[in-house]
Amino acid sequence: MNEAQRLTQLEERYAHLQRHVTEQDKAMLGLTEEIARLRKEITAPRSRVTSAPAEDAVDERPPHY
Length: 65
Hints:
By secondary structure, the chain is mainly α.
């Protein structure tokens, strides 16, 4: 293998790695956005539960009375 072929092969590998890193960055960004969305979905019901008046629930009679 001469120097020109070796250099061409290294450039091809480098280009492949650059494309791979770019695709990984896009995937990581998508996962980060999805995690943020899921956290919002999880915290919304929690905030509704914690903001509900607990006293009303204690004073209510169960349906079988």
